[in-house]
Structures are given as C-alpha cells and as structure tokens.
Amino acid sequence: MIQEIQFTIESALFHEEAFFINSLRQYLGISKQESLQFEILKKSLDARGRSIKYNLKLRVFVNEVPIPTPISSPLFQNVTNAPEVHIIGAGPAGLFCALQCIELGLKPILFERGKDVKERRRDLALLNKEGILNEESNYCFGEGGAGTYSDGKLYTRSNKRGNVRKVLEWLCYFGANQRILYEAHPHIGTNKLPQIIERIRNSILSCGGEVHFNSKLSNLEHTGQSIQSITINNHGKIPVQKLVLATGHSAGDVYQLLHTQNIQLEAKSFALGVRVEHPQEIIDASQYHCEPRPAHLPASSYSLVEQVNGRGVFSFCMCPGGIIATASTQQNALVVNGWSPSKRNNRFANSGIVVAVNETDFAGTHSLSGLYFQHKIEQKAFAAGGGKFVAPAMRMTDFVHNTLSTSLPLCSYIPGIKSALLCEVLPDFVYKSLQQAFVLFGKKMKGYYTEDAVVVAIESRTSSPVRIPRNADSLCHTQIANLFPCAEGAGYAGGIVSAAMDGINVALKLR
Q: d(Cα 402, Cα 301) in Å, to the nearest integer?
C-alpha cells in the first residue's frame, strides 16, 4: 500500500522515533510485522492550543519498496559558443535566470556590481565594526543579492507566479537541506546560503557561462525600441542582443540611468517603518503559552497585520533568533534589516513593522518620486543616529507616548543604537500609524507591547518604490523589445524564491 495521509503528533513526541512509528502504525491499523516507511511531504507547527502539535502530510509505504519523490536539478550543457544573454545582477533572479538559460542552450553573461560572497564578508565586517560603507559591496549588493547575508528565508505565497518546487529543488541540489521542500516556513540561514551561492556560480562557469564581479552597469545605448550596447565601469561598449535587468530593489542609480535615457518607469507604492526587536523569550512565551521554551521547539515567530486609519500596518521579514543589520547602500543614509542564522539561536527576535505608502504620499508625480521620498527619510535616520550607521531608537512604550527614552534595552544591532525621537525621522502618517498598531498588536499577542522591546529606524527597503513596466506575455519592457526587467528591482517579486522564479520565467521568454 502506498498512500498520502494527514497525521498530527504532539511536538514533544515528534523526534521520539519509536513512539512516532508506533503512533503511525496505530493510525494506519497495521501490525509490527508489516514493513512501514514514510516520506514527509509537508510539515507545519500548530501552536494555537495548549498542546503544541506538528501537522504532517506523509506518503506512507506499507509492505512496499519506498519510492521517494524525485528532486530535479538544472540540466547542464556546454554553452561556451551559444547565443549570449547579458544579465545585470547576480542575486537570486540573475543566478536562476542564468541556470535556466543554460538549460535552454543560451550563454549567460552576468555582471555584478559587488563582490563575490567571500569578499563581501570583509566589507560587512568593516560596516558593522567601524561604520565604513562600501557602496558597491554591502548587505544589498554583491553575489547572491540581499538575501545572502540577510537571512535566507524562503517564504512565498507566489505559487501562481512560477514553479516554487523547482526553485527549492535546485537549492537542494546546490546544498540546501531537503527540509526546505516540506517545511511550512523554509529557511536556509545566512551562515549557510553563501556556500550554496558559490556552488551555483561555479556551475555556471563550468558550463561556459561568465560571471563578472566589481562590474557596474554605467551606461546603455538604445534606439528607442532596442538596446544596442551596455557599458560596464565606464569602459567601452559591449554589444547585446538580449539584456536582463535583475538589479534588486536598492539600485537607485539604475533607475536614474533609465530615467535619463527616457526609458519608461513608473512610481509604485511600497512600505516604510521600523524594525522592532524583543527578547526571544517574550515571543516564545506568547506563542507557545509556556516559559521557558521547551528545547525541542524552534524559536517562535509571528505575523501581525492591522488596518489603522485606512492603512495597512504589518510585520515584514520576521527573524526569530535573529540580528538587526545595516542594509544601507549610500553614504549618510541609514537602512536596517534583519537576518537569522540557520539555528536561529540568537537571544533576540526582530521584525520589520511597516506602513503602506501610497503614490499619493509622494511629493510630486515624477516616476522617481517614491525613490526620492525614501532616500530623504533614510538621510534623516542617519543624522538622528549621529553617524557611523548608529541607529536612532526608542523603547516601544516611549514610542507610543512620544517620549525620549532615557535608556534603551540591549539590542543585537552591532553599530549601536542611540536614543532619539523617531517622530522627527518618520513621516507623520507612518509614525502615528505605528503608535496605534503597537498597542493593537499588544492586544492580539500577549507581551508584544512592552518597554523591553526596542524600535529601531529605519526599515525602508521592503520593496522597490519604482516599477520598470513590462508586457505580461513576453516579459519584455513595454517600450524596448530586448530589455527584460526582472524580479524585485523591476517591481515583480518580493523575496528569494519569488525573485528566483521570476528569473526562470524571464529566461524562458528568451528562446
């Protein structure tokens, strides 16, 4: 007998193999003499009741030879002399676009403005310890993109946008733990993702593709209907047949370049707010209804949303057992984000709490108005921190009462935090929406609204404030036939998996 079943077991007993198997046998009504093996297809933790359980979807094999679900890998071939596709950006969109190109018999040539994953570490260390920012190599720019050193979460609800399973299977092929195939909230971890990214790059190179680091798009030439050439690092012109823009949501200079070239852009809504950090034990006590957290349970997370005065206020990129990091890409402008190691064993939990920003909130109707609005607030945050990417911060209770904090809780943010009035940093509608939301979140989630939580400014890179428009069918730019805007930087994705899927989708249109 081979069948798929739904099975529930208490979390404390999930890792007790003998008990698990006996419970499964009883559920199936089979004897100890019959052979039993199983494959986990889905796994989610249910902490809504007093008894915390795992809900599982299993494929069971009773008196049968198990046939595991096959895991696909990219179909590699030599593309050294194949038609070329030029890709700007080596984040998940660019890398997965390149892999799909190789499957299709196309030669990908990637240009990445930042450094490879190993070299990036040194620049991140300088940023964290000394407040020295490399504008081309940081948490956002460099091989693997923003997700490489800012968590590696693989959450997505974008099944209609592409083949989620394919992306996860390819990540497993390059070294990710196969748990990501069935966990409800898969996560690789900032400490493990760099090795996976490096293996992807080496595979691209071994097939005859090219990957160039420290290679920034500085110019392009077009006729108004097609791109003729690109310039990298202001040196010479490179003829192109098809150009994929997979630059990520923080490449403001690319938007500026397209704007000066009269290539159509659109302003779009985004979200803006702060990063909130609690001691992990507070989140665990609230979510698991016990204290301390049992050793068999993972660090708990949360997802919160409220409507305040007609605006959505919601949690973003929640990092259990995580660390707040500097995500700035420009001097004198401060951005914070969060990440978690694979074990999620840091003592703090942090999450972006952001407010919807609509196009009507921008000063003006320029396609880059949202970008300018975003940058102005990031500059205010930097000034309020006093320099060297120290972040302005308040206790949550002081934030709600608009009172300068006389002291601040311990915080994971390495450059440090400084007490400041965040009403002088955030737009008024964002600040007031957050004030109300924190109180409402506290009513939903016991312990959330507390003086032990610290509010750190500013979380401003949830998504791009600019969209590069493209045709829904061909995925090429609405104006330029051989330009393919891709993923987060173009306004069509929001995370590692959705960006990777969009990279694959774009590649499939390049044949």
A: 27
**DSSP 3-state assignment of 485?**
strand
CA distance 278 to 319: 11
Give every CB contact of residue 260 below 8 A, 6+ residues apart in sequence. Answer: none
475 neighbors 370 (Cβ within 8 angstroms): no
Query: Are the beta carbons of 153 and 495 closer than 8 angstroms?
Result: yes
Cβ 47 vs Cβ 203: under 8 Å: no
Number of other residues whose CB lies within 10 A of the CB of residue 494: 21
Pull the structure tokens for residue 91.
């984040």
Spatial separation of the C-alpha atoms in residues 511 and 110, rounded to whole Å: 18
What tokens does 33 get? 């003499």
Exposure letters 187-209 (e unless 16+ CB within 10 A, then b)? bbbbeebbebbbebbebbeebbb
* The pLDDT value given to residue 126: 94
Using a cut of 0.70, tell me whether the model's pTM lies above it.
Answer: yes
Q: What is the Cα–Cα distance from 148 to 188, expressed in whole angstroms?
A: 10
Interatomic CA distance for residues 435 and 443, integer angstroms: 13
CA distance readout (Å), 109 to 204, 208, 244, 347: 9, 9, 10, 42
Give the length of the chain: 511
pLDDT digit string, tens, across residues 392-401: 999 999 999 9
Closest CA to 162 of 474, 511, 505, 509: 505
Q: What is the DSSP letter of 52?
A: -
* Residue 464, C-beta contacts closer than 8 angstroms, at least 6 positions apart: 249, 268, 270, 488, 489, 490, 491
SS3 401: helix
Under DSSP, the state recorded for 104 is T
CA terminus-to-terminus distance, the chain: 44
The CA radius of gyration of the chain, in Å to the nearest whole number, is 24
Do 374 and 465 form a contact (C-beta atoms < 8 A)? yes
What DSSP character marks residue 83? P
pLDDT band for 156, please (50, 70, 90 cuts): low
The tens digit of pLDDT for each residue in 419-429 reads: 999 999 999 99
Tabulate helix, strand, coil % of the chain (nearest 5): 30, 25, 45
What is d(CA 472, CA 153) in angstroms, rounded to the nearest whole number?
Answer: 27
Which of 32, 501, 507, 51 shows the shortest CA–CA distance to 243? 507
